[in-house]
């Protein structure tokens, strides 16, 4: 095959623009080579085969700017769509004379894994399967394609997985690949689309930057350091699918101790019971290191938070935001990346099952070794901070114990029969569901509260009461009435 570069030399082509034969003039987004008519389809069904697989788009291309870019130029070692009426140098190609064509190019056999199935590749160091796709799609379309195949866009939770993906994707044609990260639900609050915790970060320098307030989906450049970048979700990139084939990780419950007569499973004075756990909220200016030591002396660990239910409980029991402090102050919890940078683990060694980062966190701000994690009193989410800085307190956690009782169970103190409910602030709350009450209309529930319990349907005046109620209601499958109504004046 002979190639002629018009008005240039091979060295100069790197810094100039040249027309190549790819275009979508006949049908928008359906690219074909002028030489042979082979198709390079950008929007396609996931199971459709390509007639030609190689592509080398520049970052964030093709973008069809202005709706008039139907021809392709070679620029800076990659492809860019451009208006066909623009003037460019060009590259001509033809078969050489008297030289037979070589054997046809054979396709690479489709990968197969016994655990994962056809089309999937197994990471030998984990129980996860992957597909590495050069098909150019938007983030939404790429995720839909992964889900149709039983997986999701890839999440990355440790350096070992990142290295595996880096190595495997090094030979791909795509300039960038989609991962499962997104902050579309809350700007700066990055989560994985497969709902796994965000316990590892690998952003490029000064990323994510939400350039032009339009970058809400995560990808990474294959040949630029293998670090993450935020992109507009409608850009076309290759993508990585991931699925799990092994047993699911669960936290084994502690064995329930035998409870002698006259005693109960509960918490000592100064601790609050939630589920099968005791929690202490210690208000004292301390570094994370000092808080960790003191908590262990109390028989516990800085708190692990395994669910939104537990996050709600913590938020409900933290003090109100403190005046004069950034975001009202903070309390330490047990998450940190002290051992491996950017890889967050719990102090008690349990797996990370849940995260609740504040917007744009964790960020290791100003490279100040922000290796410990606290909960903002005002921001309600988590923040990484230097372990030697002072927070306004800490949350300590340990299992329930057999506790002697001299009367009423402390869980119900202040809330007399028939409440048997939960005390919070200056009020008692009882959750009346199908286990101990019939299902009622709002009017009947309000009447029952007034006549039988001498109370009212619950009033929720601030986010603390909301978090307190949510910490108990979210573990149930039923729906509960509260006291809000617009019966007197609809819409208000």
Brief synopsis:
This protein has 6 helices and 29 strands.
Strand content: 25-35%
Oligomerization state of this entry?
A: single chain
Number of strands: 29
What's the CATH class label of the largest domain? Alpha Beta
**In the CATH hierarchy, what is the architecture of the largest domain at level 2?**
Roll
Summarize the amount of helix as a percent range. Answer: 10-25%
CATH topology of the largest domain: Mannose-Binding Protein A, Chain A
Low-confidence segments, ≥5 residues, pLDDT <50?
1-14, 37-52, 98-107, 407-412
State the fourth-level CATH superfamily of the largest domain: Mannose-Binding Protein A, subunit A
Pfam families: Lectin_C
Protein name: MRC
Domain C-type lectin: 18-93, 125-242, 274-388, 424-492
Keywords: Disulfide bond
Task: From the structure above, extract its key features.
Mannose-Binding Protein A, Chain A; alpha+beta; 492 residues; eight-stranded mixed sheet; disordered N terminus; 13% helix; 4 domains
Q: Could you outline the blueprint of secondary structure elements for this entry?
A:
Blueprint: E1 2-5, E2 18-23, E3 30-33, E4 39-41, E5 71-75, E6 78-82, E7 89-94, E8 112-113, E9 117-118, E10 121-122, E11 128-137, H1 139-148, E12 152-153, H2 159-169, E13 176-182, E14 191-192, E15 217-221, E16 228-231, E17 237-244, E18 263-266, E19 272-274, E20 277-286, H3 288-297, E21 301-302, H4 308-317, E22 330-340, E23 343-346, E24 372-376, E25 382-385, E26 391-399, E27 401-404, E28 422-424, E29 427-429, H5 442-452, H6 463-473
Parallel strand pairs: 2-7, 13-17, 22-26
Antiparallel strand pairs: 1-7, 2-3, 2-5, 3-4, 5-6, 8-9, 10-11, 11-17, 12-17, 13-14, 13-15, 15-16, 18-27, 19-20, 20-26, 21-26, 22-23, 22-24, 24-25, 28-29
Protein name: MRC
Organism: Mytilus coruscus
Pfam family, one: Lectin_C
């Amino acid at each position: 095959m002979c190639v002629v570069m018009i008005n240039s030399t091979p060295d100069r082509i790197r810094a100039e623009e040249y027309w190549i034969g790819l275009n979508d003039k006949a049908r928008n987004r359906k690219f074909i080579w002028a030489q042979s008519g082979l198709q390079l389809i950008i929007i396609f069904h996931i199971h459709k085969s390509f007639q030609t697989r190689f592509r080398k788009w520049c970052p964030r291309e093709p973008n069809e700017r202005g709706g008039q870019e139907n021809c392709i130029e070679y620029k800076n070692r990659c492809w860019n769509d451009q208006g066909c009426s623009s003037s460019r140098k060009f590259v001509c190609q033809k078969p050489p004379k008297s030289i037979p064509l070589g054997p046809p190019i054979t396709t690479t056999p489709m990968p197969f894994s016994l655990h994962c199935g056809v089309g999937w590749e197994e990471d030998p160091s984990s129980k996860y399967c992957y597909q590495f796709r050069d098909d150019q799609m938007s983030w939404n379309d790429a995720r839909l394609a992964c889900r149709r195949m039983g997986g999701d866009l890839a999440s990355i939770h440790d350096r070992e997985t990142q290295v595996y993906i880096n190595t495997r994707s090094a030979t791909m044609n795509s300039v960038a690949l989609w991962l499962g990260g997104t902050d579309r639900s809350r700007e700066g609050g990055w989560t994985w689309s497969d709902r796994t915790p965000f316990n590892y970060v690998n952003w490029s320098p000064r990323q994510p930057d939400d350039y032009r307030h339009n970058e809400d989906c995560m990808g990474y450049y294959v040949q630029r350091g293998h670090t993450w970048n935020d992109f507009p979700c409608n850009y076309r990139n290759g993508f990585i699918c991931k699925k799990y084939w092994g047993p699911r990780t669960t936290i084994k419950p502690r064995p329930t101790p035998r409870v002698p007569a006259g005693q109960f499973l509960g918490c000592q004075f100064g601790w609050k019971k939630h589920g099968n756990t005791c929690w202490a909220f210690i208000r004292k200016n301390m570094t994370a290191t000092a808080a960790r030591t003191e908590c262990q002396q109390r028989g516990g660990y800085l708190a692990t938070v395994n669910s939104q239910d537990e996050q709600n409980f913590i938020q409900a029991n933290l003090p109100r935001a403190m005046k004069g402090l950034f975001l009202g102050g903070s309390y330490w919890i047990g998450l940190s990346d002290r051992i491996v940078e950017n890889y967050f683990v719990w102090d008690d060694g349990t797996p990370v099952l849940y995260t609740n980062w504040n917007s744009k966190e964790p960020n290791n701000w100003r490279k100040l070794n922000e290796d410990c994690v606290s909960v903002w009193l005002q921001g309600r989410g988590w923040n990484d901070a230097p372990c030697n800085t002072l927070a306004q307190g800490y949350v300590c956690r340990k299992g329930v114990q057999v506790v002697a009782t001299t009367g009423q169970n402390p869980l119900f103190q202040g809330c007399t029969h028939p409440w048997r409910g939960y005390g919070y602030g200056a009020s008692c709350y009882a959750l009346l569901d199908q286990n101990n009450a019939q299902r009622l209309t709002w009017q009947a529930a309000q009447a029952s509260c007034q006549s039988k319990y001498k109370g009212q349907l619950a009033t929720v005046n601030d986010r603390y009461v909301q978090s307190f109620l949510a910490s108990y209601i979210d573990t149930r499958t039923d729906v509960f009435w509260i006291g809000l109504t617009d019966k007197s004046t609809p819409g208000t």
